[in-house]
Amino acid sequence: MKIIRHPVEMHEFSSALGKSGKTVGLVPTMGALHEGHASLIKTARQNCDVVVTSIFVNPIQFGPTEDFVKYPRPFDKDCGVAEANGCDIVFTPGEREMYPENFSTFVEVENITDSLCGASRPGHFRGVATVVLKFFNIVAPHVAVFGQKDAQQCLVIRRMTRDLNLPVRLVFAPTMREKDGLAMSSRNAYLSSSERRDAALIYKGLSAAENLYRAGERSSAVLCDAIRGIIGASSLLIVEYVEIADMETLASVTTLSTPSLAAVAVRTAASGTRLIDNVVLGGTF
Amino acid sequence: MKIIRHPVEMHEFSSALGKSGKTVGLVPTMGALHEGHASLIKTARQNCDVVVTSIFVNPIQFGPTEDFVKYPRPFDKDCGVAEANGCDIVFTPGEREMYPENFSTFVEVENITDSLCGASRPGHFRGVATVVLKFFNIVAPHVAVFGQKDAQQCLVIRRMTRDLNLPVRLVFAPTMREKDGLAMSSRNAYLSSSERRDAALIYKGLSAAENLYRAGERSSAVLCDAIRGIIGASSLLIVEYVEIADMETLASVTTLSTPSLAAVAVRTAASGTRLIDNVVLGGTF
Predict the structure, then answer these.
(1) Would residue A282 count as lying in a domain?
(2) What is the 3-state secondary structure (H, E, C) of chain A?
(3) Do A111 and B104 touch (CB under 8 A)?
């Protein structure tokens, strides 16, 4: 497995692959790779000749009070995970190469970034869209793979890709879960043992909503109350939002008639860890 | 010469050219082609195997009180000009293809869009950057050619291209001028005959500043006063701005020490036509 650190080298390498007729798959990550990332890399492996995993903790998608500095960066371990799952190239640029002096260009995806995580993380999706577009331009992938756990991110990137006519096929891979259902996340490492235990209630709530939906329930308020009720059993989890939103626009839904995203964000009371999860009701990504 | 109207067809055509080893040059225009555009097409012709001229009056770069509706659209004549100057493909997409329902992604280039034309045309450069990025993604050009008359546009696109790692080489071609020095512009057609006569004062002012600069003058105030003095001789021209700005940041300059842009915008009193022009002092684009 090759490690590339400079955007120009990455672009030249990837362009040469493209010219030789090989398809390139990109898995953009911030490192701290877990089984969820492994699944994305395997998905890219199945779809492309050459798999590039980018590892870059992107400063412009973190708010000033967020965990940019403490975000885990176990680079050698990450390379091991990437290689074991079929990655050919780890692309890990420096901050200065990605954001040179006087950097001033940003991609704004409007409307669908206003709700859910966008409401409490102003500028987050601007940072995500900008860095993903940069990676697309540097790596020139035929396919890019993202995890459904970051549902709003998936929809923002899908909208950006359509709106900006980006020549890349997007694949959204299912969320990988721990045995008790907790969605895998690099931030799970921040949890205390009691927070970790109660964090399983998030998916338990979402699963309850799925069951109610399958039984015919179409009221967003009823479904959200069910989720809140289950998560609310823990005093260690503070709900940031429980919402049901249209899969296309992310507008809030009152009565479910089209595929809808049931999405949750909680913050843990003690460690202040932010956890998100979601299920799609009546459809898929 | 081929005419392509759909982005997907354009992308497939251009990708096939790229794969066959041909270089593609793009000249993005809003039509109403004059000798300035002809010069851009010829420049692309000299730099590339295949020349694409896009003709699209881009709604999102016009303000609500601007001339989007009355902007000239002489499509058949434009095709004649394009073909006569060596264009291979005119790409002329529809508004609905460029901006489908729920279009919501925009490129913001900050700071250098605040001054000069950006100050009086909020959202203009956002619209320009967005449509140019879309054209880059659709046409996948190796080279793109822009006219130096739209100096701030050139610098915004240069910044965007660097910041977003766009794989395209930019060429900025010199401003073409009428015999009396007036910069060629599609908007010159709006001028009354007396406005047209007085409009020559704009470049006369800029030339006076160039002469003063060559003679050693480095005070921005003195150079701007000279330009204002000459343009002010006409009661038909209302100065919007006369500024000298750093070529890299477009920050206002007090004493010229690095390459600087002397830039002018005027509005004509009767027809309300907005005219811009510029020269670079102590450097080039």
Answers:
(1) no
(2) CEEECCHHHHHHHHHHHHHCCCCEEEEEECCCCCHHHHHHHHHHHHHCCEEEEEECCCHHHCCCCCCCCCCCCCHHHHHHHHHHCCCCEEECCCHHHHCCCCCCEEEEECCCCCCHHHHHCCCHHHHHHHHHHHHHHHHCCCEEEEECCCHHHHHHHHHHHHHCCCCCEEEEECCCECCCCCECCHHHHHCCHHHHHHCHHHHHHHHHHHHHHHCCCCEHHHHHHHHHHHHCCCCCEEEEEEEEEECCCCCECCECCCCEEEEEEEEECCCCCEEEEEEEECCCC
(3) yes
Residues B219 and B121 in one domain: no
| pLDDT digits 0-9 by tens, B23-79 | 999 999 999 999 999 999 999 999 999 999 999 999 999 999 999 999 999 999 999
Segment B184-221, tens digit of pLDDT? 999 999 999 999 999 999 999 999 999 999 999 999 99
Give the active site residues of A.
37
Put simply, the answer to whether B104 touches A138 (Cβ < 8 Å) is no
- Whether residue A139 is contained in a domain is answered as yes
Query: Do A146 and A247 fall into the same domain?
Result: no
Domain range spanning residue A226?
186-277
Contact A167 B140 (CB under 8 A): yes
Please tell me the distance in Å from A165's CA to the nearest CA on chain B: 6
Same domain, A209 and A165: no
Residues A213 and A243 in one domain: yes
CB-CB: which of A15, A110, A137 is closest to B166?
A137
List of chain A residues whose C-beta atoms are within 8 Å of the C-beta of residue B115: none
| Residue B37 is among the residues annotated as catalytic for this protein | yes
ipTM rounded to 2 decimals: 0.96
Query: Is the Cβ pair A110, B102 closer than 8 Å?
Result: no
